[in-house]
C-alpha cells in the first residue's frame, strides 16, 4: 500500500493529509528506486527531494524489509510518496541469503513486483513518466521499457570510478592484473598504479559477487535515456567530458542536504534514512569536547566486512596514531574489535 511521507523520513511514515487534499499540476511523475543499502538510498533520496521541489511528483521505492527497518526523524521538508517492492527476502533482507542468491532473487522478484507497482500507479493517479534506478541493478530499465516508460540510471559513485569499471566491463584492460603491471592509462584520469584501483578490480578474490555487481552496472547503460552521476562537473571535468561523448550524462551532485549547499530547501539538513539505530546525542557531546578539526572519522559503510586481522591492524593503527578518532562499528562486526581496545583508548577514541 502506498504512503505519503514528509521528509526527513519519520520512523512511522506519517501521512501528510493536507498534501493529499491538494490537487497539484505535476510536471511529471518519477519513480526513484535505490539499491537497498544506506549509501545508495540517501543520495537518491536527496535527488528525489530536489525533483519534488521542482514540481515533479516523486515516488520513492524501497524493499519491504527496508521499509520496516528504516529510522528517521519527523520534518516538514518535501512530501514524497513511498511504495515498496519485494526482493524475495521480506523478513530479513540481505541477512537471509548469500550475496549471489540475494541478487538473483532481487532481479526475479523485484522485476515482477515493480511491474505490478507500475500497473497500480497507472490506474490510481498520474502514471509514471520515468524510472530513476540505481546502476547497481540494471533490470528496472527492462521493466520500464515494457511499459513504454523512460529510464535513467543513477550512479552513486564518482565518474572516475565509473570510468574504471566501464573499461573492465568492455575488456579494455585485463583483470586480475599481473604482479608486474605497470601504470595504467585511462581517458580523463592521471596514470594509475594497480593499487590505486578499486579493490574489486585489483583483487578478484576479495569479493567476487560485488565485482559482478560493479561491473554489471554497464550491461545496458547504453540503452538508458539519461545517465545521472552523483558528482559535480568541476570536480572531475576531464573524465566527465570523456564519458559524455557516448552517454547522455548529467552531473547532479553532490547529493547532500540542501543546508550544506545552496539552501534551496528550507530546513533541509537531514539525510533522512538510517538503517542502523544511532545515539546522536552521545556522539555530539563527545565531539563538542574535542578541538575543532581534531577528530578522524572511521567508517566502512553498511556492507563492508573486515576480517579479524584487518580489524586488529586498524585498531592498533588508530591507537598509535595519537589522534582523536570516532570509529563506527556495526553490531555484527563488534566482536572483531581487539579485547581491551575500547577501554585503553577511551580518552581519545569513541567506538560506536
TrEMBL record:
Transferase as UniProt keyword: yes
InterPro entries documented for this protein: UDP_glucos_trans
Source taxon at top rank: Eukaryota
Origin organism lineage: Eukaryota, Viridiplantae, Streptophyta, Embryophyta, Tracheophyta
Alphabetized SUPFAM superfamilies for the sequence: UDP-Glycosyltransferase/glycogen phosphorylase
Single annotated GO MF: UDP-glycosyltransferase activity
The protein's name: UDP-glycosyltransferase
Similarity comment: Belongs to the UDP-glycosyltransferase family.
Protein's UniProt keywords contain Flavoprotein: no
Alphabetized CDD domains for the sequence: GT1_Gtf-like
Record key words, sorted: Glycosyltransferase, Transferase
Amino acid at each position: 500500500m502506498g504512503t505519503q511521507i514528509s521528509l526527513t523520513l519519520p520512523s512511522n511514515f506519517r501521512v501528510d493529509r493536507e498534501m493529499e487534499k491538494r490537487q497539484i499540476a505535476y510536471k511529471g511523475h518519477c519513480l526513484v528506486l535505490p539499491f537497498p543499502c544506506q549509501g545508495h538510498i540517501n543520495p537518491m533520496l536527496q535527488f528525489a527531494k530536489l525533483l519534488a521541489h521542482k514540481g515533479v511528483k516523486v515516488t520513492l521505492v524501497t524493499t519491504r524489509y527496508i521499509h520496516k527497518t528504516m529510522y528517521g526523524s519527523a520534518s516538514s521538508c518535501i512530501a514524497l510518496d513511498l511504495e515498496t517492492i519485494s526482493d524475495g527476502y521480506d523478513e530479513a533482507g540481505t541477512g537471509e541469503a548469500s550475496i549471489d542468491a540475494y541478487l538473483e532473487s532481487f532481479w526475479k522478484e523485484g522485476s515482477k513486483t515493480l511491474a505490478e507497482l507500475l500497473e497500480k500507479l497507472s490506474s490510481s493517479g498520474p502514471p509514471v513518466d520515468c524510472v530513476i534506478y540505481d546502476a547497481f541493478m540494471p533490470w528496472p530499465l527492462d521493466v520500464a521499457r515494457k511499459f513504454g516508460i523512460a529510464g535513467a540510471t543513477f550512479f552513486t559513485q564518482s565518474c572516475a570510478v565509473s570510468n574504471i569499471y566501464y573499461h573492465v566491463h568492455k575488456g579494455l584492460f585485463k583483470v586480475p592484473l599481473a604482479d608486474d603491471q605497470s601504470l595504467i592509462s585511462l581517458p580523463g584520469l592521471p596514470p594509475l598504479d594497480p593499487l590505486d584501483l578499486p579493490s574489486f578490480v585489483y583483487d578478484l578474490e576479495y569479493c567476487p559477487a560485488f565485482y559482478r555487481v560493479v561491473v554489471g552496472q554497464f550491461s545496458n547503460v547504453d540503452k538508458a535515456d539519461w545517465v545521472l552521476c552523483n558528482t559535480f562537473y568541476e570536480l572531475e571535468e576531464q573524465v566527465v567530458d570523456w564519458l559524455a561523448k557516448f552517454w547522455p550524462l548529467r552531473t547532479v551532485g553532490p547529493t547532500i542536504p540542501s543546508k550544506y549547499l545552496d539552501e534551496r530547501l528550507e530546513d533541509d539538513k537531514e539525510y533522512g534514512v538510517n538503517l542502523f539505530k544511532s545515539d546522536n546525542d552521545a556522539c555530539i557531546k563527545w565531539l563538542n569536547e574535542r578541538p575543532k578539526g581534531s577528530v578522524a572519522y572511521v567508517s566502512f559503510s553498511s556492507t563492508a566486512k573486515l576480517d579479524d586481522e584487518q580489524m586488529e591492524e586498524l585498531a592498533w593503527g588508530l591507537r598509535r596514531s595519537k589522534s582523536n578518532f570516532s570509529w563506527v562499528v556495526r553490531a555484527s562486526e563488534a566482536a572483531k574489535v581487539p579485547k581491551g581496545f575500547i577501554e585503553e583508548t577511551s580518552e581519545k577514541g569513541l567506538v560506536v
